[in-house]
Amino acid sequence: MMMKQGLWAMCLLSGMSFVVGNVALAESSTPLTAPTAPVAPTAPVAPAASVAIPACAPAVAPITEQDVQAAQQAWADGIVTIGKTYQEKGDYSAAATKLLDQLYAFDEGEVLFKPTKAAEDQFRGSKDEALSYFVKGKETEDHGFALQPWSKVRFENEAVAINQDTAEAMGNYYFTDAATGKETKVEYTFGYKRAKTDGHLAIFLHHSSLPYHPEH
């Protein structure tokens, strides 16, 4: 009887050991991981601010010597047109105003204008003063230089200096009297810049004088 109880106890202990062993094995076969901490909610990301890119200024073509020559021819043609209009009893003042508006930079800033036949008011800084010089009116000394009239004006450049956005030309221009055909030589310096409106060359500097004649 005692032997049977001992065997049963051993079986019971053995079964417990087996169960415990199974539990141990089961636990050892399960990977051990640390508990994950709760993730705090993140604030919504604001969209990146758009960067305004400034518009590029339109490229301005550099002035060429051909541009200067074209501007000089336009001026010569304008002077001849004023004289013809005067001869034909047309509105020569309007023709002179057109020349000043199209070829000079009076509407864009300072213009340095020293005309040939001016002694009392030598420097004409306004459009009205320049108009008076070409067709008379404002200044009493003016007799209308363009009303001569001239049948032809031609330029001979001594030199043309190009500075990207400005140009200066110096030389002699020759005026042919429409009545006599006599040619008069006059010295000049012109300064040009591109007009803001359409980029054509506009005169900002005009100095003109008769050549020096020594008395001896």
**Cα shape:** globular
Query: What ranges have pLDDT less than 50 throughout 5 or more consecutive residues?
Result: 1-34, 53-57
Number of strands: 5
Distance between the termini: 169 Å
Mean pLDDT: 80
Question: What's the CATH C level of the domain at 65-209?
Answer: Alpha Beta
- CATH architecture tag of the domain at 65-209: Roll
How are strands sequenced across the largest beta sheet?
A: 1-5-4-3-2
The H-and-E topology, N to C, reads as HHHEHEEEE
Percent helix, as a range, is: 25-40%
Number of helices: 4
Examine the coordinates and then state which fold CATH places here, giving the name of the CATH topology of the domain at 65-209. Nuclear Transport Factor 2, Chain: A
What structural class do the secondary elements suggest?
A: alpha+beta
Structural Rg: 48 Å
Protein name: Phosphoribosyl-AMP cyclohydrolase
Organism: Thiothrix caldifontis
Keywords: Signal
Signal peptide: 1-26
